[in-house]
Amino acid sequence: MGALDELTRPAGDDDHVGGVPARLVASPASTAEAAALVAAAGDLTVVVRGGGTKIHWGPSPRALDLIIDTRRLAGVVEHAAGDLITVLGAGTPLDELALGDQQLAIDAAPGATVGGVVATGASGPRRLHYGTARDLLIGITVVRPDGVVAKAGGKVVKNVAGYDLGKLYTGSYGTLGLITECVFRLHPRPAAAAYVRTTAPAQAVPAILAAQVAPTAIEIDTATGELAVLLEGTPGGVRERSGLLEKLLAGEVSEAAPGWWGRDPWTADEIGMKLSVPLSMVPGLIESGSTLRGSAGTGVLYAAAHDITEVERLRAQCVRSGGHAVVLTAPADVRDILDMWGPVPGLAVMRRIKDQFDPDHRFAPGRFVGGI
Predict the structure, then answer these.
(1) Residue 200 and residue 311: Cα distance in Å, rounded?
(2) Which of 57, 87, 235, 260 has the most CB atoms around its CB within 10 Å?
(3) Per the database record, which ranges form the FAD-binding PCMH-type domain (predicted)?
(4) Domain annotation for the chain: domains and CATH numbers
(5) Number of H-type helices and E-type strands within the chain
């Protein structure tokens, strides 16, 4: 019980997850401390918290004894600029990263941490060009629910040693253990960027992609009826490509992103959804009448639903289109009566993985697909 006594404090009024209050909060400062804490936690139920920007995502836990706060597990452990690689503590806020002329090309909310973005599988506008956190993650250090430290991947981009734990933990919502460090592939910071903004419909996306202007992101916002394309590169190249798109879309070029860019479309009293459909089905989804915002270039859109009926309508439309829809967040009065995940293929496999990694179901119980 030594690590519990040394690292924990009584939970306060703000220490809750989905309305479920915790009894204790711990803030380990290293992987070794985190491992000792988890090993000493015994049969306590655990939820991991980073910056708290997505702690309200997903169903409420069935039980909650201990919140493990990762914000002391922060900082740049290593930056190998010549190899375009960095090792980051899981509690590192992404908006505070300083990597010189290089960047970790992951869009995140202010205050969001590395571990939180990986655990929720979050992504933003630039996923079209750079990929998601899952694509950029090449190594990971985790503490398993039994307190054992496990590592996978490495510090080189082409690494095939061991099991790919990184992909397994990405999007697992903290149900398989505690992420303490992540290794990422970096990209050069572009010298110039411009946004081409237009009221062209989503049907313009094929024309944008066919124009070979190498867009970094293609985003749409149904509330304003606006489509915006981000172009990055050398000053001359960006100037040439943005001029071409300006004519193609009858739009205007701006150095600043639209005010809605990268922001969630829902308010606190609305239901927030993530919708994924094939590109050919994006126009139909946009014409559904719901408030949507997101990547018209990848088919990943975010929706603000007003009630359960709208959730079911959008989910059915996505499934018919060959995609899927999940509820990320919802007001307290509807959270418990919503099927937040919906039908998900491979549930039996996910249950077996959970049973193997966390046989007592102590980590984030009930937060994942099928009540995992």
Answers:
(1) 27
(2) 57
(3) 17-189
(4) 1-188 (3.30.465.10), 192-254 (3.30.70.980), 271-347 (3.30.70)
(5) 12, 21
Residue 362 CB partners (closer than 8 Å, separation 6+) = 41, 43, 44, 45, 46, 145
pTM over 0.70: yes
**Whole-angstrom distance, CA of residue 285 vs CA of residue 295:** 12
Bridge pairing between strands 46-49 and 66-69: parallel
C-alpha–C-alpha distance, residues 323 and 301, integer Å: 11
Predicted confidence band of residue 162 (pLDDT cuts 50, 70, 90): low
SS3 state of residue 229: strand
C-alpha distances in Å from residue 164, one per residue of 88, 138, 141, 289, 309 = 18, 9, 11, 40, 39
Task: Yes or no: say if 265 and 223 are a contact pair by the CB < 8 Å rule.
Answer: yes
Question: What tens digit of pLDDT does each residue of 115-130 get?
Answer: 999 999 999 999 999 9
DSSP secondary-structure letter at 199?
-
